[in-house]
Write a structure and sequence with these properties.
The protein has 288 residues and is an alpha/beta fold. It is 25% helix and 10% strand. The protein is globular.
Amino acid sequence: MSIATHPLIEADQLADWLANPDIVSPLILDCRFNLADPAAGEQHYLREHLPGAVYAHLDRDLSGTRIPGQTGRHPLPHPEDWQVRLRDWGVNNDTTVVVYDQNNAMLAARAWWLLRWAGVARVQVLNGGLDAWQGPLQSGADSHPHRAGSIKATCPQDWIISGKDLQTGLSELTLLDARALPRFLGEQEPLDAKAGHIPGARCADFTGNLDASGRFLNPEALASRFASVGNRPHTVSYCGSGVTACHTILAMTLAGYPQPRLYAGSWSEWITDPQHPIETDPSKEPAL
């Protein structure tokens, strides 16, 4: 049986894999997380999760050390630290990994991006998340022994862009902001100290990539959504802290467009420098 490398996996296919572990035995990562209550995702995991799933905490596992006043809220893990975490989970370069969250792939997309950044080719997002799953569930902490993995994380630097390089090339970059329009416009800012967006950016609210059930739109619809920017060179995706920005990257990948670079520090890092310009005029930066 060939293992698909499509970015998404449907619940029925994953159920088939779990029923036939001798054919495909994926590592499953539960990525549920609540920005307003950082303990809630793990509590939900302990109550119920997909069979054999391991919990991946946004702050502990999928982010590096936050330095107030210097980094964004969820900086990327250092490549060496990320390699250690992946090996602890038993990941090799050829391991098949399935990632999921509750429904909208907001956190799962972050894990998908990080795993691919490390060099894992076979990683897929459960389309529709736990809400789409109709099979059995487990409770309690992960009790499965994991043989140490041997992945050699690659973490290519040309997948990301620093705040310094972004500021230098601002006029030449196509910026996509994955936050909701009220935050983009500076009308609301529930998480960060300053409101607005990076000048020249366009609002690409990540929820526009999904249908009402939290499943991704079909590739044709996504291609239409990003048609005006999809094939532009030097495209960069950002958000509040580098999490939902990965959702945009996943959606554009599904649409068949080149992969944008990630500004991992995103808005929460951008505003740590008082010299960085801020825009709030909606007439200059339209939404997609």
